[in-house]
Design a protein that fits this description.
Elements (H helix, E strand, L loop, with lengths): L1 H27 L25 E4 L3 H17 L5 E5 L2 H11 L4 E4 L5 H11 L3 E5 L5 H9 L4 E6 L3 H8 L2 H10 L2 E4 L2 H9 L7 E3 L11 H14 L4 E7 L3 H15 L4 E6 L5 H10 L4 E3 L12 E3 L6 H7 L2 E4 L12 H5 L4 E3 L7 H9 L4 E2 L3 H13 L1 H17 L3 H14 L24
Parallel strand pairs: 1-2, 1-4, 2-3, 4-5, 5-6, 6-7, 8-9, 8-12, 9-11, 10-11, 12-13, 13-14
Helix pairs in contact: 2-3, 4-5, 5-7, 9-12, 10-15, 15-16
Amino acid sequence: MKERLVYASYSALWWLLTPLVLLRLWLKGRKQPEYRQRVAERFGHWPQIPPGCFWVHAVSVGETMAAKGLVERWQALHPDIPVLITSMTPTGSETVRTLFGDSVHHAYLPWDYASTQQKLIKRLQPKLLVIMETELWPNLIRACDDQNIPVLLANARLSAKSQRGYKKFPALTQPMLHRLTAIAAQHTPDADRFAELGVDERRIQVTGSIKFDIALDAASSSKAKRLQTKIGKRPIWIAASTHDGEEEKILRTHAKLKIKMPDALLILVPRHPERADRIAGQLYKQHFSFARRSNDEIPTSNQSVFLIDTLGEMMTFFELAHAAFIGNSLNGGGGHNPIEPAAVATPVLMGPSFVNFQTIVEAMRAEQAVVIIQDEAELRNRLLGLMQSKDLRDTYGQRAYLFYQQQQGALKRLTTWIEDLIKLENPKQTNLLLMRRKPVNEDHRST
């Protein structure tokens, strides 16, 4: 009775907040008009999608990129079963189209109205719902549970801060977590936090991060070599996935770097491409001559910044660069994924804020596979050292690459588990399948 009341109150709150949510979409649409499009999908009015699909929910760009290997492996193993990918943001939607084209179905996930989710699941009858990382919606998970649809939380991570947030609303979050069929946690600390929230440990596997299972693309590497030929031999560094307020620090660092290395080129990749016009304004204001990727421009010898305002090319630019700074780490934002530059043996630098990837970064630091800088001055000095010394670049690049190699295998473990879940007549029997199997690479983690 109490649980029904809690869910009813939660659902009623969603309806009460709908005008504010719509207003927020409209306001976001001033900068990114795509937010004002396809609003009907947010209420469950989807295009025609065949029943019995393999469903992956990836909230935005990072989660969609992480799901790439899983989706491609599924398509190879089950070409006859359609794939549905849902997201919450226009950039996530664009990433789906960039990565998969028309080979998958796509829609925005509806807001978490109980009646909407129930009708949607009843109509779709997916084979399985895979939720990437920690994008949990109580009514969606409840609707799947009611229809006996397995729900796997994949590549799951749970910080201490997020765990405290879940503990504040136990009447809602505990039933939701209990309804999850299985949790594939990235690392043991993540698994332990889920267990502390009351999830049966037999439903949790430590599979590792599938972000390590990056399929290196020959076309991307070839593109990097072509760009290198056009740009010429210059010291190049990349600031990837930067956020508002962080670009100012990056540009000040680059200006100081250019005093010692006048031909240095900065590849600047904002996390949200829709901010590119504002960043271009900053570049003009600070008298930086720059090329812009969306205009099909290549930096000339007198241009010191390459502004990347496109999606799906990050690996190309990581391979092109001599050093990679990972954004959202100089602004207290918690950092972003440091794995992609490691996969192409590019030295990795991060600021002091990396709580979003704490376990991975700490493990990399223990292996001297990442350079943690505290401020702009240290970033400039570290970049200068890496740019001036090929031996130093090779040392840090190879350490990062070795760490990346040691961590691979999560995708295979995750795919095997998914196949097991789909074969079960009753997905809730999953707790009979395993007892917290740990990946081989768990010895490389940091607690």
